[in-house]
Amino acid sequence: MLASIKSNHLQSESKKLGMMYFRVAIVLFGAQLLMGLIAAIQFIMPGFLFEIFDFSVARMVHINALVVWMLYAMLGAVYYMIPDETGMETVGVGLGKLAFWVLTVAVTIVVLVYIFVQVGSGSESTIWLINEGREYLEAPRWADIGIVVVVLVFYWNVFTTFMKGQKTGIMTVMVANLMALAGLYLAGMFYTDNISMDQFWWWWVIHLWVEATWEVFVGTLAAYALIKIINAKREIVEMWLWIEVLMLFGSGILGLGHHYFWIGTPEYWWEIGALFSALEPVPLVAMFVHVLYDWGKEQGIAEQEGHKNVMRNGPAMAWIVANAFGNFLGAGVWGFFHTLPQVNIYTHGTQFTAAHGHLAFFGAYATILIGMMYLGLQGAYGIKTLKATFKSKMGIVLIISGVLGMTVALTIAGYEQVLVERAELGAGWNAFFAAQELPWYVQAQTWRAIMGVVTFVGFIYLVWDLLTIGKQARLAQQAEA
Amino acid sequence: MDKENLSVWTSIPFWRRSAAWVTGFAVMLLIWLSFDTLGQISMGTDEDLKNGITKRVPGPTVINYEIDYKMSEKRGSEVPVIGKKELFFGKEWSEQEAADLLHLGKLTSQAKNCMNCHTLLGNGGYYAPDLTKAWLDPAWREGGPLQGMTGKDTKEEAMAEFLMHPSQYPTHARMMPDLGITAEEAKGLVAFLKHMSSIDTNGFPRNFSKTVEQFTAGGTNAR
């Protein structure tokens, strides 16, 4: 991946910019996993780095690195696909590169301040300069404003290129969805003393990102990738995409109600949130069926025409299939587990949520974004057919096993916590610790840490593969020719 | 898919229009409900409290009142009950003083990143106890283990003392780190916690802290 800087077969500057975003994304992914390991160890060894690098800091960097690496990979994926979809070079790609460096410098400063300054005094200056202290949206206000400027540059590039170039269905959905995605960030950029009001708008950003606009984004990426990888018919993937938009927005927008059960908001959100969020898994099933159906269909056509294999990029397709299933399982099934208020009154804010969070972010987003990186490498090295290597396989198998293992461990910890702390003891200070110290809970957290290490080993294989697969495939291709 | 389409089910324009209509309808409904909700969760005033008007999120001067969390037969869950006046840090707080104290407390809760270990209204990290109704936790009451540990005479002073020097008062192997919280910030945080406990959270958390003593004492609960 790094070598792709030197030997770059990409003609398009926009695609090169996409690769720049991918490179930073994978570094931040590594940072996310390291922070996760520290936090997991602190669950079983509470003295680990106590008052040096506390859980709150490790977790803050863990979840921020998660969001930021995904946004980087998303921006990268868009810059990569624009020339293919619009048939032209991105307008203002030079400005896009400048924005990339501005964003990268800003992210570096924010992370260094998180790690070395950690907390500030109870004043506005802390919110502006150190951290905002609101889960996922910790970035201090100066960085918020910087992010808005960078995203405006990005959106202007996407929009003007779209207006000048071909207007495919995929790009139409992308442009409309990105406007909503970018605009929603503004809902998280203010301060209020009213914690209920605070969380009301906070969920507009978090929920309407991960359960609506990000999901539609994944739908558009999958549509683009299926055309690139297995030569799927554009009319079919674009029709599916509109159906997905219908179902994802139809369920996801009002599904927001499932975060309004207990934060001071009125009771009618019980019914609205339960109904619409219960429907949220439906499009995820549809997306899964769609990916596998198209693959089978295109493979059948290819065989009929006498070609052996329709697949142009093995590792990318593997990650996209992992996405289709992981999205359904992590976001759909694990989400549905605790989305009804009758259950959620006990499970809200427990390890159950953590279990869902891990599998959903991984299954719905990490997978397809890694797939896009493999697609980018294929382009950067000018490979006709990219085949999975041993390292690609180790990467995908270990990462999936690790994340599934963590999810199962956290689910078991969650059951324990929900039944003992919440149902039996009623959620007070000592009730919390009574549950946290039960042997089954500790055992589950130990397994979570072990599975975290498995995930990290998988990540090392993934990075090793990303660094080497392109060059190897290029040499093999030259040897064949 | 093209012009000689046989069925509406394979027509891209049909699905595009449907997607637009469904999305538009969902957005309109969300905006309409949001306006209603924002009205219902706007903070009450001192007048409301004096006149016994129940607000989902009471005004900052709620810190001058006793707060309880009782089962409501009608709603089938526990609801906050605001009782008679009580002193908070030894005084009654004026409307402006209470608002300033809550402001300091909420800001401090963000500046110290409370939410990445604790949950507030159930949202945040899962490494430390939920703080939604922490003010009402029996352990902080007179005679409760947490108040006893700090050697203070009132709930608010005990909580403030703990917040300033948490690692001096370990309750479990997993401890809260010293975050450099000043005496003023600690008062603000306790006001923030007391205010949060008065918010009507539709019965979350359920059955709050009723049976811990019985559970830890062992034996049967049959009486």
Series of secondary-structure elements of chain A, N-terminal to C-terminal: HHHHHHHHHHHHHHHH
CATH superfamily heading of the domain at 312-481 in chain A: Cytochrome c oxidase-like, subunit I domain
Structural class of the helix and strand makeup of chain B? mainly alpha
Outline type of chain B: elongated
Q: What portion of residues of chain A is helical?
A: over 70%
Shape, per Cα inertia axes of chain A: globular
Instruction: Give the oligomeric state of the chains in this entry, treating copies of one chain as homo and distinct chains as hetero.
Output: heterodimer
Low-pLDDT segments of chain B: none
What is the total tally of β strands of chain A? Answer: 0
Overall CATH architecture of the domain at 312-481 in chain A: Up-down Bundle
CATH fold call of the domain at 312-481 in chain A: Cytochrome C Oxidase, Chain A
| Main sheet record of chain A | none
> How many angstroms separate the termini of chain B?
72 Å
How helix-rich are the residues of chain B, as a percent range? 25-40%
Supply the number of helical segments of chain B.
Answer: 7
The major beta sheet of chain B can be summarized as: 2 strands, antiparallel
In terms of per-residue confidence, which ranges of chain A show pLDDT below 50 for 5 or more consecutive residues? none
